[in-house]
Each structure stands twice: as C-alpha cells, then as structure tokens.
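Quick illustration, no need to memorize.
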Amino acid sequence: MRRVLNTNVDGGVKVMYALTAIKGVGRRYANLVLKKADIDFSKRAGELSHDELERIVEIIQNPLQYKIPQWFLNRQKDRTSGKYWQLVSNAVDNSLREDLDRMKKVRVHRGMRHEWNLRVRGQHTKTTGRGGRTVGVTKKK
C-alpha cells in the first residue's frame, strides 16, 4: 500500500492501474503520465522508488508544464479563472459541489432539478426512479 495524493494505492497492481485509484485519474491519463515520467509499464506500484513517485505526482499536478494537451484535462476553461486544470482527489468533489451550488443559486433549470432530486439529463420520469415508492394495480377481492 502506497499513499499518493491522499489516496491509498495498491502496491501489488501494475502502476497504470494502481494510479486509477486516485479520483480524477483514469487509465488514459495514467498511461500518459507514465509515458511523460518515463516509467516502465510492467512495474508494480510497490516497486516504484521515491523519486519515481515524486515525478508521477509532479506530472499529475502540473500537466501543462509537461506538454500534456489541454483537451486531455478534466477541468477545461474554469468558470472563475478561465484556466485549464487536472483536478484530482478532493478537488474533484469540491468543484462539483461548487458547480451545483452555483447552478442552484442562479436558478438554472439543471440546478433546480438537482435541488428537487429529479433526473437532470432528460430521462423519462413517469415510471422509473420513484425512489422506493411502489405504484401498481391492486387486485379486487
């Protein structure tokens, strides 16, 4: 078990798949980070040296400095700063919560649906997603 970016990473798994345990890092992003850090893909996460781990963390936190393209990042053109970020671990949850709070405050339709705990993306709601309430036909006696 290794501790990387406030996340426990399994040391027995190959590095690329072990990095996906970090929230905000998927397989493709982990693959790209390992290529930029010049680390062997066949290594296990527990076999990484301290320097290699630091290199990985540095690239994950500052992807634009290592020529990772902007379109690859998970927070593009941030509303407040206008910058491109790769959000990891707690920052993903914080930004999602801030976005939802902003939508609720501005009274956007999507924010209202979130507030009412209804489906947001245009799904049908007549019969599905009733949240535990059962509605059906009762049999006459």
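The beta strands are 2-4, 7-9.
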